[in-house]
Amino acid sequence: MIAPIPASPAAPAAPDSKAAQTAKSFEAVFLGQMTQMMMATVETDGAFSGGHGEEMFRGVLAEKLGTAIAAAGGVGLAPAVLRQIIALQEGSAA
């Protein structure tokens, strides 16, 4: 006789669950920080320099780019973070 397949210990979290939103927010912040670091290496002098306004709002632009990238599917960080959140929750519930 074939042994039954054991049920998974936890059902995957719904995409709109609090844990999933937290994981997606984490990815957005991470991508914003990465974008800001990349933008810091770009030369801004010359004819296309934004001047003082560009310097002031560069961080806001990086944050919005990170949020937009995460909303468009991200780079795959959110699912890994979500798995860790669920594992931590299961560990604390036991």
Description:
The chain has 94 residues and is mainly alpha-helical. The chain is built from three helices and no strands. Helix 1 runs antiparallel to helix 2 and helix 1 crosses helix 3.
TL;DR?
The chain has 94 residues and is mostly helical. It is built from three helices and no strands. The protein has helices at 18-40, 51-71, 77-93.
Indicate the topology.
Elements: H1 18-40, H2 51-71, H3 77-93
Cα-atom radius of gyration: 20 Å
Biggest pleated sheet:
none
Distance between the termini: 33 Å
Task: Please state the overall shape, judged from the principal axes of the Cα atoms.
Answer: elongated
Instruction: Give the overall pLDDT as a whole number.
Output: 83
Given helix and strand content, the structural type is mainly alpha
The topology string of helices and strands comes to: HHH
Proportion of strand residues: under 5%
Put simply, the count of helices is: 3
Unreliable spans are 5-11
Helical fraction equals: 55-70%
**How many distinct beta strands?**
0
Task: Provide key terms for this protein.
single chain; 94 residues; mainly alpha; 3 helices; 65% helix; elongated
